[in-house]
Amino acid sequence: MQVFLTLLRRELGSHFFSLTGYVIIATVLLLLGFSFMDMLSKVNATPTDAPFTEVFYVTLYFWMILLLTTPVITMRTFAQEKFTGTFETLMTTPVSDLQVVLSKFAGSLLFYLLTWLPLVGYMFALQQLTSSPSTALDPRAVLTTYFGILLVGGLYISLGCFASALTRSQLIAAAVSYGVGLTLFLLSLRSLVPVPPEGWQAKVFTHISMTEHMQDFARGVVDTRPVVYYTSLTLFFIFLTWKVVESRRWK
Amino acid sequence: MIDVRNLTKRYAGTTAVSDVSFHVARGEIVGLLGPNGAGKSTILRILSCFMPATSGTVRVAGHDVFYAADEVRRRIGYMPENNPLHLDMRVREYLKFRARLKGLNIRQSRERVDIVLQQCGLTEVTRRIIGQLSKGFRQRVGLADALVHEPELIILDEPTIGLDPNQLRSVRQLIKELGKKYTILLSTHILPEVEATCSSVLILHQGKILASDSAENLQKNIFRNVPVVAEIAAPAQVLKDAWSDLPEVQHLDITALDGDFHRCSLTPRDGTDLRPMIYAEAIRNGWILRELTRGRHTLEDIFVRVTRNEKEEEQ
What we know:
The structure holds two protein chains of two kinds.
Chain A: H1 2-17, H2 19-45, H3 52-57, H4 61-74, H5 76-84, H6 86-91, H7 97-115, H8 118-130, H9 139-165, H10 170-187, H11 200-207, H12 210-219, H13 224-247
Helix pairs in contact in A: 1-2, 1-7, 2-4, 2-8, 4-7, 4-9, 4-10, 7-9, 7-13, 9-10, 9-12, 9-13
Chain B: E1 2-10, E2 15-24, E3 29-33, H1 40-47, E4 55-60, E5 63-64, H2 69-75, E6 76-79, H3 91-101, H4 106-119, H5 135-147, E7 153-157, H6 165-179, E8 183-188, H7 191-197, E9 200-205, E10 208-214, H8 215-222, E11 228-233, H9 236-245, E12 249-256, E13 261-268, H10 275-285, E14 288-294, H11 299-314
Parallel strand pairs in B: 3-8, 3-9, 6-7, 7-8
Antiparallel strand pairs in B: 1-2, 1-4, 4-5, 9-10, 11-13, 11-14, 12-13
């Protein structure tokens, strides 16, 4: 546990030591700012019954932030250490491979969640500005939205860690996680997937549609199906990362 | 301390280390000497449990590096080639981080970090960012990291590469100092380094151990027929007669220098040290002796010699 916490602290700290961390924070702030203006104009134009969280969600900024930042956050985790050689000093201390993988995953996920914090402020600011009782901010909806952000973020962060563990080059790591991440996202857009609207294919695609899952979370609905879907996929990618790190010691 | 038996490491297509066996006793400073690509780093990486051997057994302090890797890692301090460090951290912060990783609790890590900062002469730079330090200081940080958890064995891969002569001397001094307390295994391709720091030497070439001996014996055995050069003011014929009378001289060569001086290059028979005899001869005849040196062998000579011996044995 001591080792895990030490590594986690280092992992989280490294995001703040580097310029990349601040660029990511600035980008997320900028996108959230755009989304705030967007939300404001939407609420002003047509008064709506939907909770703010859903108003935010349908602006698509959520997906931009997810797809843009997670590969950049995770690309360095393993690739940089392998490139500079610190991976060797790390792996020759009495730490287990799993501790290293989990701390890198947790550190990146925590940093990702931190960049999302300003959203709460925007929600409350919006409530103050509009102050119509029908669109009152539901704290539970905010919580479920963050739960969704955590779940989907977890999947993308674990995917990014896996891509980073495969290579010494941060560029390749980022490119791989962009590619796979974007594919996952595009698969969830029903209009882009050429399957019949009825039948088992349609069911499968509804099941893996992230846009629909997130819409539920933004409305305050927590369905166990997406929860299982995201946690199992996240665990799967963490497992793969673990095996990639371990493979160095296979005979 | 280290027990390596029939160690072989194959990478795809090439054999980096083939059938190497050696033993290092507690308290020794052992140098692993060899040209680039001889397999030094590979051996050290296997010893530090970074990667597994293809075959053979390697035990450190009685623990197998493959089956009891954690036990071994706890007992070694390893500084890899080029000394990779987290350049964005401060010196004390980095050492504390490493100490905690190696299982020291908060109090122990604080104490040990203070001690190694002192030991490695880093007290003035504790708050500096590692990326801004000179290479000599970085090397010291790497050494401090290697010994922060009081390991039984310190493994250093090319610890003095890329240092300027002053830094070189101080890092070597530091290693020697540490050798009084710890067992040290270091790799290098520089011969004087081994002579300056190590008590015994393993010579590695193309993945095989060619010679292993104490630094002194190695000097004696491999340097046995190195010519001694003396610059003496005396007539050439007299010198020639005097040296020819010495039964220990196998071959002699005299060239005229400025003034009365002649440069005599004498090759000994059977590795005798000719220098005292030359000195005595000069005193007896009242010659002026202004230089008396024994030639040095470069690493290449040693390799040529050792590999030649091996070929002869094969024949």
